[in-house]
Design a protein that fits this description.
The complex is a heterodimer of chains A (95) and B (484). Chain A is mainly α and 95 residues long. In chain A, 36% of the residues lie in helices and 4% in strands. In chain B, 39% of the residues lie in helices and 14% in strands. An eleven-stranded mixed β-sheet of chain B has the order 1-3-2-6-8-7-12-13-11-9-10, with helices on both faces. Chain B has a single domain, classed as Amidase signature (AS) enzymes (Alpha-Beta Complex). Classes of the chains: A mainly alpha (95), B alpha/beta (484).
């Protein structure tokens, strides 16, 4: 296996130290060598199972569900930075 | 005998006959935790005030004549299950200060029944691990030998039940996280079928295999708890509309006569310790002597299940854990930083070693050019495993394997080599990939516990509990407990 661990870490929004890069590369290489045994299985006749119990898709009317106000407020209050009822996030567009 | 040592069913009759109160029971559990948990570290949070209030409420309901199986019964909950108003950390620094704004569906149901929530138990961070050593808050020790691990990832829940800190505990099982620590700690661990119990309010790891489960002192208690976990939930679209049978009825039929146990011949390819080999051979013979039948079956793709699992799971983890961005909950971000830097800093500070490893592995397996070779292929192998189980169950009622390849290992033995930790799940992930119900029963307790895993067809929990109760009677280890 060879992969650009810095690129993959960036895709996952993780910054890794040089020490972590070496360590994770070695460990993940070891795991990938193990899971590579999947290549020897004949799966030409198989569909992928993305989810179990797939024949049971349940539909419901698209209605707003009532929810206790206190729980809603507690949920919003979990945000680390707030102003009134708004959540403050870093600037998304650079000027 | 202290009251915290009782099973649910034993406490039930005492509560219903007014011999004891829920408050007595709850106080004995709290005292046991206070006295012994420094040595074990099974619990991350004890809500003493809340528990006493719930116990008093349960006693009022009992006094008014109300009766149900769990009314007044104290329990602990793995800390990746949402409990309203209480810290729910998932064993991660990321959520060290996260107070759940609502209850998981399973918690809601248990509270409605009048069960008494004592607190929260330790786990591998986000459920990633098989030893509870990956908890950001320190490992849980095995009650049978404190130099050894409790197993994982529901290690705190299993150690708490083994230590009589509660009458039962909830765990979650994604690839063995209820069964594995149950085996290491000498308790019963039940993983229900995928779709039987609601996942709403579980902090997601691998959405396609996650399920809540329970750790109990015996099989009858597992049946009693499952009764309250099972059932359709509008908040989890993967739950199935099926009528839930009265599981307790099935845990009382104790004959092994003509029950067919299938042993996959492929398990012989995987190395297990000599004590596991011996106890497994012994139980096979004892089942036959008791009138059961043991037949060889084949699951040709069994040896590929672990590889498929360790592709599918990291992929779903990399996706599920993308939500931890530090903006809406969790660790604080620096408002002055640019968005990308803020994400990276929060995730760097909040996630532990194993979590990062799984996120990187999963992101790699899902990235352009690798998706088909890894994720898609693993999901096709999964289909093969599902079909092979369906075929195997034409020739047997349940499938039996050891739960783990060895008894509990010493602290630190596997953290240096992540793949060796993954191999702990060898006997456990196949049932998870196929969504099948499975239970681990104590097969041996001294010097260290070992587990017997039984797997049944999808939604055949009644049959599974029936066979498990009969095996439990045959093994006859229920009353042997660790010295704390």
């Amino acid at each position: 296996m060879s992969f650009n661990i810095k690129h993959v870490a960036h895709l996952a929004r993780l910054t890794l130290s040089e020490k972590e890069i070496t360590k994770y590369y070695r460990e993940i290489d070891n795991i990938v060598r193990y899971v590579d045994k999947l290549a020897s299985v004949n799966v030409s006749q198989e569909e992928a199972t993305m989810r179990l119990n797939k024949n049971d898709n349940r539909l419901r009317p698209d209605l707003v569900e009532s929810w206790p106000l206190e729980e809603k407020e507690n949920l919003i209050n979990l945000a680390p930075r707030k102003k009134n009822k708004l959540i403050i996030v870093p600037r998304i567009f650079e000027s | 005998m202290k009251l915290n040592e009782l099973t649910i069913s034993a406490a039930r009759s005492k509560l219903d006959n007014n011999e004891i109160t829920s408050l007595d029971l709850t106080k004995d559990c709290l005292a046991a935790i206070k006295h012994h948990d420094k040595k074990i570290h099974a619990c991350l949070l004890i809500d003493e005030i809340g528990a006493i209030a719930l116990a008093k409420k349960a006693d009022l309901r009992l006094k008014k004549g109300e009766r149900n199986e769990l009314l007044g019964i104290p329990f602990l909950v793995k800390d990746n299950i949402m409990t309203k108003g209480l810290l729910t950390t998932a064993g991660s620094k990321m959520l060290a200060n996260y107070i759940a704004p609502y209850d998981a569906t399973v918690i809601k149901k248990l509270k409605q029944a009048g069960a008494v929530l004592l607190g929260k138990t330790n786990l591998d961070e986000f459920g990633h691990g098989a030893s509870t050593e990956y908890s950001a808050f320190g490992p849980t020790k095995n009650p049978w030998d404190k130099k050894r691990v409790a197993g994982g990832s529901s290690g705190g829940s299993a150690a708490a039940v083994a230590s009589d800190f509660c009458l039962f505990a909830l765990g979650t099982d994604t690839g063995g996280s209820v069964r594995h620590p149950a085996a290491f700690c000498g308790v019963v661990g039940l993983k229900p079928s995928y779709g039987l119990c609601s996942r709403f309010g579980l902090i997601a790891m691998t959405s396609s295999t996650d399920t809540p489960g329970c750790l109990t002192k015996d099989v009858t208690d597992a049946a009693l708890v499952l009764q309250y976990l099972a059932g359709l939930d509008d908040k989890d679209a993967t739950t199935i509309a099926k009528s839930v049978p009265d599981y307790k009825k099935y845990s009382n039929k104790l004959s092994l006569k003509n029950i067919k146990f299938g042993i996959p011949k492929e398990i012989n390819n995987f190395p297990v310790s000599s004590i596991v080999k011996k106890t497994f051979a012994d139980i096979k013979n004892n089942i036959k002597k008791a009138g059961g039948k043991v037949v060889a079956i084949t699951l040709p793709s069994l040896d590929f299940a672990l590889a498929a699992y360790y592709v599918i799971t990291p992929c779903e983890i990399s996706s599920n854990l993308a939500r931890f961005d530090g903006l809406r909950f969790g660790l604080n971000h620096d408002a002055k930083q640019k968005l990308a830097t803020a994400y990276e800093n929060v995730r760097e500070a909040g996630f532990g070693d194993e979590v990062k490893r799984r996120i990187i592995l999963g992101t790699y397996c899902l990235s352009a050019g690798y998706y088909e070779a890894y994720y898609l292929r693993a999901q096709k192998v999964r289909t093969k495993i599902i079909n092979e189980y369906a075929k195997a169950f034409k020739n047997c009622d349940v499938i039996m394997t050891p739960t783990t390849p060895t008894p509990a290992f010493t602290l630190g033995a596997k953290t240096k080599n992540p793949l060796s930790m993954y191999l702990e799940d060898y006997f456990l992930v196949p049932a998870s990939l196929a969504g099948l119900p499975a239970v681990s029963l104590p097969l041996n307790k001294q010097p260290l516990p070992l587990g017997l895993e039984l797997i049944a067809p999808s939604f055949a929990e009644a049959k599974l509990l029936n066979v498990a109760a009969a095996c439990e009677k045959l093994i006859n280890l229920k009353n042997i407990k660790p010295l704390l």
